[in-house]
Task: structure prediction
Amino acid sequence: MNSFNVWVNGELVDASSPSVNASDHGFLLGDGVFDTLVVRHRRPVFIDRHLRRLRRGIERLQLNMPLTDLEFVDAISQLIDANELTDARVRITVTPGAGSSPRDRGPTPLVAITTAPLQPSPESVSLCTVTWTRNEHSPLAGMKSTSWGDNAVILRHAHERGFDNAILCDTSGRLSECTTSNLFLVVDDQLLTPSLESGCLPGIIREVLIEANVATASVLTPADLERATEVFVTSSTTGVMPVHRVDDHPHRIDGSHTANARAVIDRFSALDAT
Result:
């Protein structure tokens, strides 16, 4: 691979070349939506689910729909081929494009697709609790918005304390999610995850586990976190990830619920990629 390419509004360009207008609302305002997915054996996994979620975000931001599903898939394929990748992490970003003010959006949305080799996942991760909250009443709640500054600050805070990620509650004190993943607890031998009313992201892996009747969405509190016998987090890039520590409390990473959830996702991923 001689150069690294990105896909921007229908063209493959070198990643080091200027390709985004300095007046783009995604750059200036964080006014945009994104989605991140995995490609395995050159095939995007759960692509229909990812594009459905992306479209919900585009509609909520009142953007013009820039591409059809087939055009998105074709763009990803072009990018994977151009970068000679087999297993990859792909991010699709859509913004209103350039505009003169927050109220004045340009006529042409920006679509930028980037990719990188898929990195190996760790065996398990550690989580810390924080006093910052997820605002479930925000107009951006539950959406993969490019307004990601809050998460970046909280994630750096967790890393500085020696943890991999942070657990957020919503403004009423209910457990919500981590900065980059959904949260799952085993309480009284039941696999539970915070409900969408907590402002958490409707994660793709979360969606599959709920639809497969493996997990149940529920109202959870920090007290449930203390009672949990297993804890894991999920994201499209890491799948089911066991948690070995929450603050100073250790957790087993080989629990039966965690293993079953991972097996279910592996099976559904394999079926989706065929």
About this structure: The chain has two domains: 5-117, 125-272. The helical segments are 25-29, 47-60, 69-82, 149-160, 204-211, 222-227, 256-272. The domain at 125-272 is CATH 3.20.10.10 (D-amino Acid Aminotransferase; Chain A, domain 2). The chain has a mean pLDDT of 94.
